[in-house]
């Protein structure tokens, strides 16, 4: 099942093969700056400063 099919399936109140997840793909969703750093560390990605995109909610890029 593709990610698109997974989302459409969930929106149709059917059971997808996996739970669809959205990490900051739209203007109304996001991920906290501390979590961005933790995910980068967990996946052994390049260590760099997290840019705060939206200071009220501390959404990071």
Task: Report what the structure shows.
The protein has a domain at 25-61. It has 2 helices and 2 strands, in the order ααββ. The protein has helices spanning 3-11, 33-42, and strands at 52-54, 59-60. The longest helix has 10 residues, at 33-42. The model has no long low-confidence stretch (mean pLDDT 88).
Put the structure in a nutshell.
The protein is an alpha+beta fold. The chain has two helices and two strands, in the order H-H-E-E.
Q: Tell me the fraction of residues in β-strands, as a range.
A: 5-15%
Largest sheet, order of strands side by side? 1-2
Topology as H/E string? HHEE
* Oligomer category: single chain
Query: Mean pLDDT score, rounded?
Result: 88
Separate helix tally: 2
Low-confidence stretches: none
Which class of secondary structure composition applies to the elements? alpha+beta
Largest sheet: 2 strands, antiparallel
Query: What's the gyration radius in Å?
Result: 14 Å
End-to-end separation in angstroms reads: 28 Å
Helix content, binned percent: 25-40%
Query: Any idea what the shape is?
Result: elongated
Number of separate strands = 2
């Amino acid at each position: 099942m593709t990610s698109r099919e997974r989302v459409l399936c969930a929106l149709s109140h059917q059971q997808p093969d996996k739970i669809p997840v959205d990490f900051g793909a739209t203007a109304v969703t996001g991920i906290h700056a501390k979590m961005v750093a933790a995910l980068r560390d967990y996946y052994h990605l390049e260590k760099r400063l997290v840019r705060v995109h939206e200071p009220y909610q501390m959404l990071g890029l």
